[in-house]
Known about the structure:
By secondary structure, the protein is of the alpha+beta class. It has 4 helices and 6 strands, in the order E-E-H-E-H-E-H-H-E-E. Helix 1 packs parallel to helix 2.
Amino acid sequence: AFLRRYYVLFFIKVQTREVFSAGATANPTGVWTTQAARNLFLRHSAHLDAARALVRDRGSQFIDTFDEIFRTEGFKILQTPVRTPVANTFAERWIGSIRRELLDRTIIWNHRQLERLVGDYTEHYNQHRPHQSLGQTPPTPAHDPPETPQATVTVLRTSRCDGLIHEYGNAA
């Protein structure tokens, strides 16, 4: 609303399409991205065990110490070619999804609100939103669907992202 530009750092586990939000900032420096990478491994190291490579663009905020954090965890660093967004299609797809479903429909007032909304959307994306490549299931479902549908169904609606997104599920 105050015409400030914020940058969101996120990571995607390509095998499962699970997204990890690493934070938002108005000034993405090399020191900030390095600390965000450290925080990623502190929070989500169990989810990243099978990952072996980091695909990233050539932004100046990705300094050598950022890459070194991933190398020490056994990752290979792959940089996308210059001006080639199709080289990182999974990230581009997530950016398009969060823009269409959340950011184009919301006025962001401050940094704290942005981080809260991105965190809420990421949780929705990982636990509820169906993915065609995963057989219309979310990357990490909050609960397993029943094997046989019930004779009568009571539907519950849950609001996310300040009421912008609604999730529907069976009442158990």
